[in-house]
Amino acid sequence: MAWEGSLSRGTGVARAGKGAFELPIDLPSRIGDPGAKTSPEELLAAAHAGCYATSLAGAVAKAGGTVEHLDVRCTVTMDEVEDRGHLIVSSELDVRGRADGIDADGFGRAAQAADEGCSFSALIRASAAVSVKTTFES
Amino acid sequence: MAAERRATVTWNGDLMRGAGTIDEVGSGAFGPLDVSWPARSEEASGGKTSPEELIAAAHAACFSMALAGGLAKAGTAPERLQTSAAVTFVPGTGITKIVLTVRGTVPGLDADAFREAAEGAKKNCPVSQALAGVPEITLDAQLA
Known about the structure:
The structure holds two protein chains of two kinds. Chain A is α+β, with helices and mostly antiparallel strands.
């Protein structure tokens, strides 16, 4: 991550070590209209969705099902908390899935197990609300 | 004011051989990005990203912005901050360690004051607070 200038007028670029991405970042992208720039919270939303999706793929297989397709949408919210400044207050997962060899109840249980097995869910649950909403598409 | 940030991932197939894509993010700044389990747990990632790499980017960016803000507030705005975050992921355990390294070009500031400002940013940035459960977070802060 390279940053140039002050917080309110400066800009940064986040680069992945293995070259998978290179992204511009600035303060308005974080608390205002993002324009086409990303923010730490958007990167965390992508990380949480990715962590949860891999965890759910594993949990469905463990329950005897075969994943056809999973769609995971994650919304991370940062808010100003009195006396504590800006904090990440919640991460909401909205999951739609299609799988063979498992029914809606089984998928619901796998979704729960996936939340427990996703290391990032466990990590941020210590300071933020994590919720999972699931829809099984048979 | 609350700020909401959104990302969508699609996964096809099982864990070990299947693969996912970060299809889109709310800002449209990136995507699609491929993700996979080997990209997460093994050395050679073949151009694919992982949740931990995204967390590293989020932490480095959050820390840099907090440090830029703190330095400017103290009257010594930085010219340039170069931050790296290395996240260690142990399958079955989770994230065990994050190493933050920052090199700063800050006119009018000495090394001790820079280190102190960096420690403050590490403690207070929202991503650091969200990741407070990581067993070990270290910081190496020096002037460039």
